[in-house]
Amino acid sequence: MTWVLYLGIGALGLAVGSFLNVVIHRVPRGESVVRPGSRCPRCAHAIAARHNVPVVSWLLLRGRCAHCREPVSVRYPLVEAGTAALFVAVTARFGVDPALPAYLYLAAVAVALAMIDVDVKRLPNVIVLPSYGVGVLLLLPAVLVGGDWSALVRGLLGMTVLFALYFTLTLVHPAGMGFGDVKLAGLLGLYLGWLSWSSVWVGTLAGFLLGSVVGVALLASGRADRKTALPFGPAMLAGAFLAVFVAAPVTHWYASLLTAGA
């Protein structure tokens, strides 16, 4: 039954990833994600349902539009497959838990925001701000089932702390990050705080570390210079999900080092 669950979640992730491709393309342009239906980004011809099967259609069409035969970016199937893989990983982490839908939602939002930030160096309010309310609503069933109100309180405190931290950093060094990063920090604080305070700190430190590593790599390769604006959202999101999966063992390992040293 576990494999049946994973297969179902993987299929859901593929479908969500297909929709996220629409979100990634249209939201920065201020277009509706509902109408019109999926179209070729080059010739604007409507994509038939049989040509819109996640990953499979791209492979069968050899990465080309069925109408104009122009190449279709490999990023489309990668977003679909990546979303499916992240959905399965999150399900393996939480199992059949009332909090699972909340973290699946965060996974979908993370994929969309990371790609949009890479493309246009923005984290759209239309995605980030409603996610605060959606996150709280999706976490409430876990509170009602488990009766652990402290997790929700910790999540709200984590949201406040990370928002305040990033807001302060923006005031101190405005060129270092944008206010979109501040708003994203609050959202991540909600989800990480729900898990534990160690998740908040591991996720935050991991985000800064990953951002620094990517920045140094781009500078060393000549693909960026000291004046190049680099998106920080993807590093924040990657750090947060790293914490979702490894914060507990990392904290345990660090605590064992302190105990051994004492």
Automatic annotation (TrEMBL):
Residues 105-216 form the Prepilin type IV endopeptidase peptidase domain. It is a multi-pass membrane protein. It holds the Pfam family A24_N_bact. GO terms for molecular function: aspartic-type endopeptidase activity; methyltransferase activity. GO terms for cellular component: plasma membrane. Its EC number is 2.1.1.-, 3.4.23.43. One of its GO terms (biological process) is signal peptide processing. Residues 12-94 form the Prepilin peptidase A24 N-terminal domain. The keyword Protease applies. It catalyses: Typically cleaves a -Gly-|-Phe- bond to release an N-terminal, basic peptide of 5-8 residues from type IV prepilin, and then N-methylates the new N-terminal amino group, the methyl donor being S-adenosyl-L-methionine. It is found in: Cell inner membrane; Cell membrane. Its main location: membrane. Keywords: Cell inner membrane, Cell membrane, Hydrolase, Membrane, Methyltransferase, Multifunctional enzyme, Protease, Transferase, Transmembrane, Transmembrane helix. The chain crosses the membrane at residues 6-24, 102-120, 127-145, 151-169, 200-220, 232-255. It comes from the Bacteria. Belongs to the peptidase A24 family. Plays an essential role in type IV pili and type II pseudopili formation by proteolytically removing the leader sequence from substrate proteins and subsequently monomethylating the alpha-amino group of the newly exposed N-terminal phenylalanine. This is Prepilin leader peptidase/N-methyltransferase. It comes from Pilimelia terevasa.
